[in-house]
Amino acid sequence: MRRSVSVAILAAVLAIGFVATVEGRRGFALSAQEKALMEVKIDNFSYAPATLTVAAGTTVTWTNRDDIPHTVVSTDDPKTFKSKVLDTDEKFSFTFSKPGTFAYFCSIHPKMTGKVIVQ
Amino acid sequence: MSEKKKDELLHDHNHDGIDRRGFLKCMAWAGTGAFCVMKGGVLNSYSLSRMSEISAADMMGELSFVQISDSHMGFNKPANPDVAGTLKAAVDKVNGLAAAPEFMLHTGDISHLSKPEEFDTVEQILKAAKPKDVFYVPGEHDVLNDDGKQFLERYGKGSKGSGWYSFEKKGVHFIGLVNVMNLKAGGLGTLGHDQLEWLEDDVKHLKKSTPIVVFAHIPLWSVYPEWGWGTEDSAQALAYLKKFGSVTVLNGHIHQTMQKVEGNVTFHTAASTAFPQPQPGKADSPGPMKVPAEQLRSVLGVTDVNYIQGQHALAVVDSTLA
Lengths: 119, 322
Prior knowledge:
CATH superfamily of the largest domain in chain A: Cupredoxins -  blue copper proteins
CATH topology of the largest domain in chain A: Immunoglobulin-like
CATH superfamily of chain B: Metallo-dependent phosphatases
Oligomer: heterodimer
CATH architecture of the largest domain in chain A: Sandwich
Shape of chain A: globular
Structural class of chain B: alpha/beta
Largest sheet of chain A: 4 strands, mixed
Strand order of the largest sheet of chain B: 7-8-9-10-12-11
Distance between the termini of chain A: 46 Å
Shape of chain B: globular
CATH class of the largest domain in chain A: Mainly Beta
Helix content of chain A: 25-40%
Largest sheet of chain B: 6 strands, mixed
Structural class of chain A: alpha/beta
Helix content of chain B: 10-25%
Order of helices and strands of chain A: HEEEEEEEE
Number of strands of chain A: 8
CATH architecture of chain B: 4-Layer Sandwich
Number of domains of chain B: 1
Order of helices and strands of chain B: HEEEHEHEHEHEEHEHEEEHEE
Number of strands of chain B: 14
Strand order of the largest sheet of chain A: 2-1-4-6
Radius of gyration of chain A: 21 Å
Largest interface: A-B, 22 and 24 residues
Distance between the termini of chain B: 26 Å
CATH class of chain B: Alpha Beta
Number of helices of chain A: 1
Number of domains of chain A: 2
Radius of gyration of chain B: 18 Å
């Protein structure tokens, strides 16, 4: 009896340790990925990536790398976010606090569209 | 065929029926300097670098005016670091015309970023032009950040809605339309319900024989929807103009000259005075096209339009700045 209890405790400890390790690794991997993807570049009249998935609370920054000004405006009404016009190399940031899918476009060149999926 | 003839694109509006088929008739790309003269119902298109070959008579009419477009004052990227200089060159070209045009139309993107000083600079430069009256419609670059408030304050006197209006000159009915407001995601230029209603009412009382000139920034025909080069509800606007024998539509936005004849309607886009853009689909995006400095002026231009009274036709002349 005592032996089986200690085996169970050992198994539980191992299991917890294993889970914690996996969680820790996954957590690390996620945040690195998030960091890499929190930027949206505007090049050649398009947003890249056109679809960005982030965790709630993430701040996304758009950078206009075109020779022509662009904007970043959500398509909802009332608008969740709306940048000023971004000239070359200018940036716009928005922090997505709530989960959801946020479609946006360039109000100057409406063929330019993108979305941010907040989980 | 002589060299000159080769550059002429003939359209007989009244007789041959070709134009009524409604397909793309003639495309005079930027760089070739489209020069079109419609006379007696026939549209002639020349290269303006050959302006010296065109007789003064061909350029004369009861009414002449100039269209300039897309001056993008404030733009300073490699495609043209001196947009003020090229606008001045356009003014020089206008002032060099044999007969001074009566007025000018500016089909939008006056400024690059809607900054007050950009509008001021354009106004200052255009003061040097012989034609003193300039009629404007906004481009999307003129209504940034403030939904066109500044544009209306500067140019919208007597206009309706977001800046549309009409006026008469020597029997020709001119209509300035605004199709750069409230653009929807994934969409094209938009005129909107209110403006369309106004347009229907505006032309209702006119005789069918009244020549109509419509000017707006984004093309009112589907040039290349993939790049947003068209207007969602332009078909409705054109439907209101169906009864008229002569309708000319002048647009900017695409920074290159292009022409199309569809039934009673002739469409023209003007070159930019600032920088050229690529041909539809011929680049990854419609961004500014960098051309060697010595060639830049040959792809920028002004459009000179003559109206010959009694013939219900307009002569459109696209001139390069070279």
